[in-house]
Design a protein that fits this description.
The complex is a heterodimer.
Chain A (H helix, E strand, L loop, with lengths): L2 H8 L2 H21 L13 H21 L4 H4 L1 H18 L10 E3 L2 E3 L1 H17 L9 H20 L3 H7 L2 H7 L5 H41 L8 H26 L2 H10 L6 H15 L12 H4 L11 H33 L4 H25 L17 H19 L7
Antiparallel strand pairs in A: 1-2
Helix pairs in contact in A: 2-3, 2-15, 3-17, 5-6, 5-7, 6-7, 6-16, 6-17, 7-8, 8-16, 9-16, 10-11, 13-15, 15-16, 16-17
Chain B lengths: L7 H26 L1 H4 L5 E6 L6 E2 L5 E13 L9 H8 L3 H13 L10 E8 H10 L6 E10 L6 H4 L2 E3 L2 H6 L9 E3 L2 H5 L1 H5 L3 E7 L5 E4 L15 E3 L3 H10 L5 E7 L4 E8 L12 H10 L9 H4 L9 H10 L14 E4 L2 E4 L9 H7 L2 H12 L7 H14 L21 H7 L24 H12 L3 E2 L5 E4 L13 E2 L4 H6 L1 H10 L13 E7 L7 E8 L6 E7 L9 H14 L7 H9 L3 H11 L1
Parallel strand pairs in B: 2-10
Antiparallel strand pairs in B: 1-8, 2-3, 3-4, 3-5, 6-7, 8-9, 10-16, 11-12, 11-20, 13-14, 15-17, 18-19, 19-20
Helix pairs in contact in B: 10-21, 13-15, 14-20
Classes of the chains: A mainly alpha, B alpha+beta.
Chain lengths: 423, 619
């Protein structure tokens, strides 16, 4: 097989075009949100020029990935994972505090966020582990090891006080779910989440009454169909008691002890329990900027709220507000659909693999991108609490662009060799 | 391998699609349905509201740093019409060519200056001038004044303590983590810089709807997002401004420093660095020129903060401490006498001494300032058997000096302090590489000469420590900051020196005799017992520096003072009378009539012009 020519032929060009389109939109938006009358376009200190340098670096890194042997990635999965854990630990030890988090390694003018690359390492490690011969996700041992693989880097990121990135790591449960992790876990997680939010919203008394009513309903139902149902009485009671304890004691503990005051207030703002000015300022401004875009938007470089620097962090975490204001409902919906297209394309690529390693890795990439998409856009339009993570390919920032580009490049490389791989 | 969970891929894809759809629905409600948000689409401007900078008061509540209005004249070029240019220039006190040059810049550089928005025509016009122009402003369409506040210093004194306020530079902006924007003002020196975070307050912000020309046409969302500026905090500092002004008057035409400290509290009462300058020079339009002139005045060097940065050998003012150390280490007894034969000889080195009666004890040694007595004390200390060698002994000696805050910064709340030099054994090992140094090599340390250097504030602090019996607080200026419960803990904590109080108090007798019947008769203040010590810092570049350190009254001292007058010779002649006048002024509030002649004698003294003449004639 003549590898060089075939690599170009077997690459998934649709993904590449989608990627390039998103990066171009990102650059244009970064230019727009920092746009100021009278500035010199090629001024190297301006964000869009700096980001352009990062695009160059990212494309170069992708080219390097393409030249590497396709077996390299599964072979290097463990060393890479171990190296990233060490790097995260090192970062925690020596990094300066920037915006309350200690997650940046600073080398002169360049700062890197090792957590961005830890996501790739975790995807590779999960893929490597789940393709081992003796792994079966229906067994507790494998479940625990797989969860530990996710929890280790996640714990280190939490130690760096980078809650947003830690949240992204929970996305890997989608990978585990796809590979046969019992569905009860996400169901339980959803149930706990529901109890948590409804308790905060309606108070423990109301929720306790509600679950008691549900229990009573179940009791009647169970007693009537005693013979036909295998559910045991005791299990139901146990679930009820656990829920009751959680609602009346656990929620308060979790909310007031485990969360920082600013995180509490962000959740309060989202649930409408608090209208403090400082806490909802970002979201209010982002919502106003997006809302003022109307159906068709104000036009490129014409976003007045964007230009007036109303939305804090509008080049990074709140960059979606710039898109919303300048391109309106039509433009931003198209953008969301474009992003969805890339996600679905990656998920589709995943399913066409013969190699489980590539499939699992592809799910890892898709999960990380999906979590960023969900949290970032959800925050900007006021559906989720404020958690600062970048919008992939769009937000200003070198580490995140480089990290996402490399993870996508590895996937496309593996995908191009899918016919060779039989594992 | 059979893919049992293949169907789960549909669940995951479904989630992706569902989330995107939820987002789009939300966008539809925000961007299409919610008209309250769409009405925000008009232009909104943002204006920073600057807080009023905090005021500074002295220890008696006298305002020493205030704010006064100053005006920037703005011009909207579109509204510019027929006007009497000549009259306009006359009111403003500018030349016709300046007027035309400004107009030219504004009108030709159209990419930088708007024709429809107010642009800066001339900055920092004082109130007096603005008052003249304001009456005629209607004759000059397009011009409008914009007020802002700048600093004013009613007493034109204490420039080195107060510092000044100036436009923020790139370095300060970088260091502030984005707080300062170009064109904003920041404390540049002194208290203004040290307490910048307290003095500056907190900026506010105002959002407003703009018309097509960028003019304010009403508050945005009824001011829901506006924040009010928080005024800066007022600070009370420990200076007695009248004592300060008096000190600067006495030091006129002299180079040097006065530092006065309240011994119990560590509060600085006066802090004179001479030659000084009027702090008002660094306010307003002439700030840049004046600053350059001060910076390039290489003869007077008025910007140097001498109390913090001038290093002198302490000379004989070090002797009381020398005696205390030798006594405390058991090298001498206070009753030790010494037959001074007009000089001290050790290993072929001769240290001269002046003529004086025989010394019977330590206090007489201090009173007569006998060089031989303290050289012998240091020799006995360095060659004492209790130490391993001279190195060990010298390190013990320098340890005492550090305990008295010599050789390290006092920690005063001003930037730029120097630590001086207290040599230890390592220092001499380095200096005499390989050669063995011994007591004879370093003997001049005993009389405050040699490699020992101190700053005036360290010297004043040393005598504040002696005055307070060995217990002291770090010298500091801040007394209270409004809206803040306490000042920094480092200024309220007591430190102690390793010499017992009774020994320190024992040598007061010797220091009082210095004034009563010793080297500083001119420092006598009727009715107050002053303890002090003269000193002469040898100066290899010219005439010696005159030093006097003292505290008063002997019981419950209220002021400790160090005075340095450069190039004026013996300490008793110039520094001592200045210190005594300062103490008298502070303790009594006025100078007794029978001492007016002394005041005149000091005010007339001029060591700067004399110096320059000497330098000129020498050429």
């Amino acid at each position: 097989m003549k590898r060089r020519e075939n690599l170009m032929a077997y690459l998934d060009w649709l993904s590449i075009w989608l990627y390039l389109l998103l990066v171009a939109i990102g650059l244009a938006t970064i230019y727009a949100v920092n746009f100021d009358d009278g500035q010199y376009f090629f001024d190297g200190s301006l964000p869009h020029m700096r980001q352009l340098v990062w695009v160059g670096i990212s494309v170069f890194a992708a080219a390097v990935v393409m030249i590497l042997d396709y077996k390299f990635f599964s072979a290097m999965a463990w060393p890479f994972y171990a190296f990233m854990l060490l790097l995260l630990l090192l970062t925690f030890a020596i990094a300066p505090t920037i915006n309350g988090a200690r997650s940046w390694l600073v080398f002169g003018p360049v700062s890197l966020q090792p957590a961005e690359f830890a996501k790739i390492a975790t995807s590779l490690a999960l893929a490597r582990y789940l393709t081992s011969v003796d792994v079966n996700l229906s067994q507790l041992r494998s479940q625990l090891i797989a969860m530990a693989l996710i929890a280790l880097p996640m714990g280190l990121v939490v130690m760096q006080r980078d809650i947003g990135t830690a949240l992204v790591f929970t996305g890997f449960f989608l990978v585990l779910y796809r590979e046969g992790f019992p569905a009860t876990v996400p169901v339980i997680a959803f149930y706990v989440g529901l109890l948590f939010v409804s308790t905060l919203l309606f108070g423990p008394v109301t929720v306790s009454l509600a679950i008691t009513a549900v229990l009573a309903f179940f009791m009647v139902f169970i007693i009537r169909n005693w013979k036909r149902l295998k559910i045991r009485f005791l299990e139901i009671i146990l679930i009820y008691l656990l829920s009751f304890t959680f609602v009346n004691f656990g929620v308060d503990m979790l909310f007031y002890k485990a969360l920082q005051p600013h995180q509490q207030s962000r959740i309060n703002v989202l649930l409408g329990r608090e209208v403090e000015r400082g806490a909802n300022y970002n979201v209010e401004q982002a919502k106003i900027a997006i809302g003022s875009g109307g159906v068709l938007g104000k036009g490129y470089l014409k976003g007045t709220l964007t230009k007036g620097d109303f939305v804090p962090e509008q080049g990074t975490d709140f960059i979606f507000s710039g898109i919303g204001e300048e391109f309106g409902f039509v433009g931003s919906s198209l953008f969301l659909l474009l992003f969805m297209a890339l996600l679905l394309r990656i998920l589709w690529l995943a399913e066409r693999q013969r190699s489980s390693f590539t499939r699992i890795y592809a799910y890892g990439v898709a999960s990380v991108l999906f979590m960023h998409f969900l949290v970032n856009v959800g925050m900007a339009i006021g559906l989720l609490p404020v958690i600062g993570i970048p919008l992939p390919f769009i937000s200003y920032g070198g580490s995140s662009l480089l990290g996402f580009t490399i993870s996508l490049a590895i996937l496309l490389k593996l995908d191009a060799y899918r016919k060779l791989v039989l594992r | 391998m059979k893919d049992v969970f293949g169907n789960r891929k549909y669940v995951i894809r479904g989630m992706v699609i569902l989330v995107t759809l939820i987002f789009i629905v939300r966008l539809f409600s925000l961007q299409v349905l919610d008209s309250s948000l769409k009405s925000e689409a008009s232009d909104v401007g943002r204006k920073t509201l600057y807080p009023v900078r905090g005021l500074i008061y002295d220890r008696n509540g006298v305002l020493i740093v205030g704010n006064k209005p100053i005006y920037d004249l703005m011009l909207v070029q579109k509204q510019l019409g027929e006007m009497d240019t000549l009259a306009f220039c006359k009111y403003l006190g500018i030349s016709d060519s300046f007027f035309r040059a400004r107009l030219h810049v504004l009108s030709t550089r159209s990419w930088r200056y708007s024709k429809v928005r107010p642009e800066l025509f001339m900055s920092m016009i004082p109130e007096e001038r603005m008052a003249v122009l304001r009456e005629h402003l209607y004759e000059f369409p397009g011009f409008m004044p914009q007020v802002r506040l700048v600093r004013t210093y009613p007493y034109t004194a204490a420039a080195h303590v107060i510092g000044n306020v100036g436009e923020v530079n790139q370095k300060e902006m970088d260091a502030s983590n984005g707080y300062y924007r170009p064109g904003e003002y920041v404390g540049k020196d002194g208290i203004e810089k040290y307490y910048e975070p307290e003095l500056r307050g907190k900026k506010g912000v105002k959002y407003y709807y703009k018309d097509n020309l960028g003019r304010d046409i009403g508050p945005y969302r009824n001011g829901a997002f506006d924040t009010l500026p928080e005024p800066g905090r007022n600070i009370e500092i420990s200076l007695d401004i009248f004592l300060q002004v008096y000190g600067e008057k006495l030091m006129k035409n002299k180079r040097g420093s006065i530092v006065a400290i309240e011994p119990g509290s560590g509060e600085i009462l006066a802090f004179v660095s001479s030659p000084s300058y009027d702090p008002n020079m660094l306010v307003g339009r002439q700030r840049g020129n004046n600053f350059r002139a001060l910076l390039h005045d290489s003869i007077n060097k008025p910007l140097i903060n001498r109390p913090l940065r001038a290093l002198y050998p302490p000379g004989s003012t070090f002797k009381p401490l020398m005696g205390l150390i030798a006594w405390n280490e058991g090298a001498i007894r206070p009753g030790m006498g010494y037959p001074c034969a007009g000089a001290y000889h050790i290993s072929g080195i001769r240290i001269g001494c002046h003529h004086h009666p025989r010394i019977h004890n330590l206090n007489e040694g201090i009173q007569r300032s006998c060089n031989s007595y303290f050289c012998e004390s240091l020799r006995l200390l360095l060659e004492n058997d209790k130490f391993e060698d001279e190195s060990d002994a010298l390190d013990t000696w320098s340890g005492y000096l550090r305990a008295f805050n010599l050789g390290r910064k006092t920690g005063i709340d001003l930037y730029g302090e120097l630590s001086g030099n207290v040599p230890d054994s390592k220092y001499y090992d380095r200096l005499y590489k390989g050669w063995r140094w011994k007591a004879a090599t370093v003997i001049s340390l005993a009389i405050g000469q040699g490699e020992l250097t101190v700053t005036p504030i360290q010297l004043a602090n040393l005598y504040a420590i002696l005055a307070n019996g060995g217990k002291y607080r770090m010298p500091h200026l801040v007394r209270s900051i409004a809206g803040q419960d306490t000042i920094h803990r480092k200024y309220t904590r007591y430190r102690t020196v390793p010499i017992p109080e009774d020994k320190i108090k024992w040598i007061y007798e010797g220091m009082e005799n210095v004034i009563r019947d010793g080297t500083a008769g001119l420092a006598r203040i009727p009715g107050i017992s002053v303890c002090g010590k003269t000193g002469t810092a040898e100066n290899p570049h010219g005439a010696d520096h005159s030093i006097f350190t003292a505290f008063a009254p002997r019981e419950n001292p209220r002021i400790a003072i160090a005075v340095v007058v450069e190039n004026s010779g013996f300490g008793g002649t110039w520094a001592a009378p200045i210190a005594s006048l300062m103490m008298e002024y502070y303790l009594k509030g006025e100078i007794a009539p029978e001492r007016k002649w002394l005041e005149d004698y000091i005010l007339k003294a001029d060591f700067i012009d004399e110096d320059n003449e000497a330098a000129e004639s020498g050429q």
